[in-house]
């Protein structure tokens, strides 16, 4: 693994359940994600996108193969080690922002470093919220924010520990298309301006087109990659993989 690599996945497999009722969600996936790049993972429903993201983020354990985050093997870590990894080295954004409703935007964004037992510098958290366009919403609670603003708080929260990789699973799935585009534009700017490594799971060709590279999954395997994607090219390849 070279220092330019954020993640290297080798022959990664994940089988859910036991025979005869088992499901092969990932079947010997090989994948390299470079630092400072934006990758979209796409494919039909059930193709293994979420499972792959969760294994790479240390939220789920593979049943075979290797995952390296930076220089560290993370497959086979204990639950305790995985918790430490999740709190310090990776960030997540989900479809729903999952904010704590009684806390302000600033308090929500401060939670991960607090949980990791780190001193929280208010200036850093405020700067992050300003960077995601919420400098004037620090004391607002989730109920006082729009869906797009809530998702921006979730992104600021995910960045608060300066994660090596930011993972997002359908981050715009609950947003209208204009708001979704703003959130994707924000993720894109984090890559361009801060060199953040970003991985997004999406079934939306427009969302995938914000990435540098789209990786296609079909039946738990990588079926192809597309660099410098356009929405049309992504949609065509998606259709091909669904009929193929
Ligand atoms: N906990 C589980 N137990 C059993 N099977 C599971 C479990 N989680 C996922 N699966 C199965 O693994 C396969 C891959 O699921 P996964 O959620 O990764 O797909 P996906 O591509 O993200 O799908 P979608 O686009 O519908 O969210 C599916 O066939 C799914 O039914």
Automatic annotation (TrEMBL):
<dbReference type="InterPro" id="IPR017911">
    <property type="entry name" value="MacB-like_ATP-bd"/>
</dbReference>
<feature type="domain" description="ABC transporter">
    <location>
        <begin position="7"/>
        <end position="244"/>
    </location>
</feature>
<dbReference type="GO" id="GO:0005886">
    <property type="term" value="C:plasma membrane"/>
</dbReference>
<dbReference type="GO" id="GO:0022857">
    <property type="term" value="F:transmembrane transporter activity"/>
</dbReference>
<dbReference type="InterPro" id="IPR003593">
    <property type="entry name" value="AAA+_ATPase"/>
</dbReference>
<protein>
    <submittedName>
        <fullName>ABC transporter ATP-binding protein</fullName>
    </submittedName>
</protein>
<keyword id="KW-0813">Transport</keyword>
<dbReference type="InterPro" id="IPR003439">
    <property type="entry name" value="ABC_transporter-like_ATP-bd"/>
</dbReference>
<keyword id="KW-0067">ATP-binding</keyword>
<dbReference type="GO" id="GO:0005524">
    <property type="term" value="F:ATP binding"/>
</dbReference>
<dbReference type="InterPro" id="IPR027417">
    <property type="entry name" value="P-loop_NTPase"/>
</dbReference>
<dbReference type="GO" id="GO:0016887">
    <property type="term" value="F:ATP hydrolysis activity"/>
</dbReference>
<keyword id="KW-0547">Nucleotide-binding</keyword>
<dbReference type="GO" id="GO:0098796">
    <property type="term" value="C:membrane protein complex"/>
</dbReference>
<dbReference type="InterPro" id="IPR017871">
    <property type="entry name" value="ABC_transporter-like_CS"/>
</dbReference>
<dbReference type="Pfam" id="PF00005">
    <property type="entry name" value="ABC_tran"/>
</dbReference>
<dbReference type="InterPro" id="IPR015854">
    <property type="entry name" value="ABC_transpr_LolD-like"/>
</dbReference>
